[in-house]
Amino acid sequence: MTHIIVNVIYFLTMILLLVATVWIVFSLLRSTLFGHAPFIPVMDHAIDPILSELDLGQDSLFIEIGCGNGKVLVAATQKFPQTKMIGIEHDLVPYFIARFNTRKLPNVSIVRQNFFSYDFSKATHLFAYLLPGVMDDLGGKLDRELQPGTILVSCDFKISRKQPLRIVTVSAKKSDLAKNLFIYKW
Ligand SMILES: C[S@@+](CC[C@H](N)C(=O)[O-])C[C@H]1O[C@@H](n2cnc3c(N)ncnc32)[C@H](O)[C@@H]1O
Q1: Residues 20, 22, 27, 33: what is their CA dihedral angle, to the nearest 10 degrees?
Q2: How far is CA 5 from CA 10, 11, 13, 155, in A?
């Protein structure tokens, strides 16, 4: 009898582990599989130029569209500790890492949500590091929701039908992923 109970517990544990593994892998790859933008943290050399372009103030509301592991929010808090910041992330693994990395930052909230269903109307500053198609899909939504004067810094990918205020080159190295920042103002 004990032998059967041990086998049943072993079997159930294996099933649970399998389900958890599939869930974590699916969650990690969801953005990649569905073409939204995979979890690739922005390279370090781009951080300072991103923060300089954002130039946040005490009354700003900074929202990161797809915040990954929260790396930009952590760096932004070091430079602008008074600014309220929100990171939107729908993939489970980066979401939990971002929650952990920002756990001691009272000015930062991480929201687990698809950013296509998030209301950006209160944002004053935005940062995105996504994909060209995603930026184009987001463009119309941002046009409808953003207040005049809102700034968007987009790393490497532009909104093709919108004229950027300026383009800032952050690296000319072929091997670097983050090369340009597209600065938009509504
Ligand atoms: C290229 S990574 C950039 C992460 C972070 N912004 C950075 O620069 O380090 C893009 C992130 O956006 C997230 N993402 C992609 N599509 C999303 C969606 N529709 N809603 C919420 N998050 C999304 C991905 O899970 C991924 O973590």
Answers
A1: 180
A2: 8, 10, 12, 55
Question: What's the token pair of residue 88?
Answer: 């939107």
Q: Does ligand 1 lie within 6 Å of residue 94's CB atom?
A: yes
The pair of three-digit structure tokens given for residue 15, joined into one six-digit string: 């099933």
User: How crowded is the C-beta side of 153, counted as CA atoms within 13 Å?
Assistant: 25
- pTM as predicted: 0.86
Q: CB of 130 within 8 A of CB of 65?
A: yes
70 ligand 1 Cβ < 6 A: no
CA gap 140, 159 in Å, rounded: 10
- Atom nearest to 91 CA in ligand 1: 25
Residue 61, both tokens: 């509301």
pLDDT in tens, 88-122: 999 999 999 999 999 999 999 999 999 999 999 99
Instruction: Extract the tokens encoding 28.
Output: 């990690």
Q: How far is the CA of 3 from the centre of ligand 1 (A)?
A: 47
